[in-house]
TrEMBL record:
Matches recorded under Pfam families: Motile_Sperm
Gene source species: Plectus sambesii
Protein name: MSP domain-containing protein
MSP domain span: 2-113
InterPro entries, sorted: Ig-like_fold, MSP_dom, PapD-like_sf, Sperm-specific_class_P
Amino acid sequence: MALRIEPSTAEFPEAGGQLQHTVVNASGARIAFKVKCSDNNLFTVRPVFALVDPGQAIGVDVTRKAGIAKQDKLVFQYIEVTAEEHDPQAPFRQPQQYHEVTLPLAVSVSNEP
């Protein structure tokens, strides 16, 4: 797999919170990625778009607001780009076939009253 997310799962408390994940480009090519979320009202992701050089990594912050426990996910769409590409959004303006990696988003439920 050319793109790897570390850690590969995310678990938030019901009260919400913020986690940091690392997007690793394990390929020999430059990659642009875009993050899509199953619930944009509950989650915020920064950055949404980025470029990652071969063998490099970038941090991604995932923030969850307080809310009911439910299963959600982030989908990282990615595509190989040239070294001359400087706009991480540009490859996603035209419909193309993208590779994808999914990050499951879970909620730990407290049994305390």
